[in-house]
Amino acid sequence: MIKVLMQRRVPPGFDTDDDEQLARHARIAADALATIGGGAHWITSYIADDTIFSVVVFPSEADVERFRQAAGITDQTSVVRRISRTFDASFADAPLRRP
Length: 99
Description:
Number of helices: 2
Strand order of the largest sheet: 2-3-1-4
Radius of gyration: 16 Å
Number of strands: 4
Low-confidence stretches: none
Strand content: 25-35%
Number of domains: 1
Largest sheet: 4 strands, antiparallel
Shape: globular
CATH topology: Alpha-Beta Plaits
CATH architecture: 2-Layer Sandwich
CATH class: Alpha Beta
Order of helices and strands: EHEEHE
Structural class: alpha+beta
Mean pLDDT: 90
């Protein structure tokens, strides 16, 4: 399994303040993930200005492209980056290892 950060522009005409439009786009993504199966799942998405950032788990690298095609994400401005590690504020409390 791999975790990726997908970044793409908000599609033209997609009003991100409209819950019905968000629901429609979420259904498109959920249906595309269902076509892949095998544990593929969408963790969350963030909208910032004119960009959507999504964290998604896929069984393999090849499944990323299968998802993009099934979801209709064909624009050349989308970027997918593999997440190698995550961290958060809880690391601030972790004991430091001294050499």
